[in-house]
Design brief:
β5 and β6 form a beta hairpin. The longest helix is centred in the middle third of the chain and has 25 residues. This protein has a six-stranded mixed sheet. Strands 8-7-15-14-11-10 form a six-stranded mixed sheet, covered by helices on one side. Strands 9-12-13 form a three-stranded antiparallel sheet. The protein starts with a helix and ends in a 7-residue tail after the last helix. It has two domains: about 130 residues, Roll (Nuclear Transport Factor 2, Chain: A), CATH 3.10.450.50; about 160 residues, Nuclear Transport Factor 2, Chain: A, CATH 3.10.450. By secondary structure, the chain is an alpha+beta fold.
Length: about 325
């Protein structure tokens, strides 16, 4: 990552090739999707990005590594999260250039094999870039549009060995939290006769009351259990049906931090109102990244990126095409 970031734009293809395996696999969000090689990833994503955003920087806020909980801890992954930052000087994917600083939220997972990167998943918040460009094509968000903050504790870059017991504890709590969501969904769908918990009771099992949830553009960020319920959980559970969980590609933890991504994580059916849009009755996939910070025995912060352009595109809304019809603000 240091070598790639320090290289001139025209030299980065060589840097990426030198650090990746022959069968390298790259995943990116809509409209980039999956690419079969380092050269393809450069051509489709990195070269156009670096041409549009000059004086480009990576401003990493979180870094950790761990064994993958999804394959019996057989593979090693890293997770880097933060912002790319540059001057938006040339239009990108039809998004108009501003000539101003643009901050691009990112989360990047690498699978390491034999001293090489064998697999990458790079999520960027495309809708947030569109919002910064002043051509917002969607109804208002239920949460707040903001820049991802660094962890409250300013200890997110884990470059030195951590106590394995701490990472195991973090992963256990994240898995418990996910299990609680599955149980609640089973009750909502009539697949379980268990006594339902209230949303607050469910969240208090694994979250601090002053939890911070940094959501993607289109949803927005929220703070405290009560506002999280109001501004994210209720719309998600009331305006989306038929939730089907597909699992994760990688789920790992180190120290007080954990993260996962899926391809996709789940499918849901919009029935009306979600993100201010009409219901389609059509199942759509959500490719999601979640990064967590644990404080003591509960989770304290959560950073999320979702491939919203893909999710909306599967419902018949091509956001990038719609940009051509939205007046600049």
């Amino acid at each position: 990552m240091d070598a790639f970031d320090a290289a001139a734009p025209q030299a980065r293809a060589g840097v990426l090739a030198a650090h990746t395996s022959r069968d390298y696999r790259w995943r990116g969000l809509h409209p980039f999707h999956e690419q079969p090689s380092a050269s393809a990833a450069m051509e489709v994503f990195w070269t156009p990005l670096l041409a549009s955003f000059t004086s480009f920087q990576r401003r990493e806020q979180i870094f950790f590594a761990g064994l993958n909980d999804c394959d019996g801890q057989q593979t090693t992954w890293t997770c880097s999260m933060g912002h790319f930052r540059g001057l938006f000087d040339v239009p990108w994917l039809g998004i108009p250039a501003t000539g101003k600083i643009v901050t691009i939220r990112y989360a990047e997972f690498h699978r390491i094999e034999g001293e090489k990167i064998a697999e990458t998943a790079l999520f960027v918040d495309m809708l947030n870039v569109i919002w910064q460009a002043g051509v917002w094509p969607l109804p208002p968000m239920t949460g707040a549009a903001d820049v991802f903050p660094s962890p409250l504790t300013n200890d997110g870059q884990l470059y030195t060995p951590q106590d394995p017991a701490e990472g195991a504890k973090t992963l256990r709590i994240v898995n418990e939290m996910a299990s609680n969501i599955s149980k609640a969904n089973a009750v909502l769908q009539g697949k379980s006769n268990a006594k339902p918990l209230t949303p607050r009771e469910e969240l208090q099992l694994t979250w601090h009351d002053d939890m911070a949830w940094y959501g993607p553009a289109g949803i927005g960020s929220t703070y405290t259990i009560d506002r999280y319920i109001l501004q994210h959980q209720q719309p998600f559970r009331r305006q989306l049906e038929d939730r089907v969980f597909h699992g994760h590609v990688a789920r790992l933890a180190e120290g007080n931090y954990a993260g996962f991504f899926g391809w996709p994580n789940l499918s849901v059916t919009p029935i009306g109102g979600y993100m201010g849009l009409p219901g389609t009755g059509t199942p759509a996939d959500m490719r999601v990244v979640d990064v967590y910070r644990r404080d003591g025995d509960k989770l304290a912060e959560n950073w999320i990126i979702i491939d919203m352009l893909h999710f909306l595109n599967e419902q018949g809304l091509d956001v990038l095409a719609r940009l051509q019809e939205v007046p600049r603000t």
